[in-house]
Specification:
Layout (H helix, E strand, L loop, with lengths): L15 E10 L7 H10 L3 E8 L3 H7 L9 H8 L4 E9 L1 H9 L4 H7 L4 H5 L8 E3 L3 H11 L8 E3 H26 L4 H11 L10
Antiparallel strand pairs: 1-3, 1-4, 1-5, 2-3
Length: 210
């Protein structure tokens, strides 16, 4: 349908969230780490943090604790502790799903048949030595990122309209009250006064119980 002379076409901007996920370059692909990192960057990811580590069997067991008791668990632990790995904190919109799509199916042998261009098909060997790891959900990414990067901030960051909606709902009402109080008070140092007021009237300030 063609818009008339007085009609205006409005394109709604998508709500974009900068999401974080964990990527691991496993022992069998460590020699190709720089090459894989280059592919990651060209795919639109930002590498926020990176660690090269050699996991002990105990650490590998802790990381894959959800698989404890399964038949492949001992060989998985042995494999992941057999040499150094590179853990990367990746970020972009929909990072979890995009990274999972880029690395492809878990079984590298099947990936070579069904998704020959994915990273596991290119760098993996078999159903276990599959070169790369990616968090499969937001909750998994939280746990796994904190495993390698303790204290990191995992929550997605809103941008665009999503950020505006958050500010309108969570920030602007408190700020408006503070500015109104500032206008009535007329302090000699308005910036410092407003800063103190916001600290005192922060609705998210933790409450200390006696």
């Amino acid at each position: 349908m063609t818009a008339g002379a007085n009609e205006q076409i409005i394109m709604e901007k998508p709500q974009i969230y900068v999401e974080r996920t964990l990527a691991i370059i496993k022992p069998d692909a460590i020699q190709k780490a720089e090459e894989i990192e280059d592919i990651i960057l060209r795919a639109g990811f930002a590498v926020l943090q990176k660690r090269r580590v050699h996991l002990t069997p105990e650490q590998a067991s802790d990381f894959y604790a959800e698989h404890y008791g399964k038949l492949f668990f001992p060989s998985l632990v042995a494999y992941m502790s057999s040499g150094p790995i590179v853990a990367l904190m990746l970020a972009r919109d929909q990072a979890i799903s995009y990274w999972r799509e880029l690395i492809g199916p878990t079984n590298a042998l099947k990936a070579k048949q069904t998704h020959p261009e994915c990273l596991r098909a290119i760098y993996g060997t078999d159903d276990q030595r599959n070169a790369l790891h990616g968090s499969d959900s937001f909750s998994s990414s939280q746990r796994e990122l904190r495993f390698f990067f303790p204290g990191c901030i995992i929550e997605p960051v809103a941008t665009g309209q999503a950020a505006k909606d958050y500010l309108s709902k969570a920030v602007n009402p408190t700020l408006l009250k503070g500015l109104t109080a500032l206008a009535k008070e007329k302090p000699s140092d308005p910036v410092l006064w407003l800063a103190d007021w916001l600290l005192e009237n922060n609705p998210n300030k933790p409450k200390v119980r006696d």
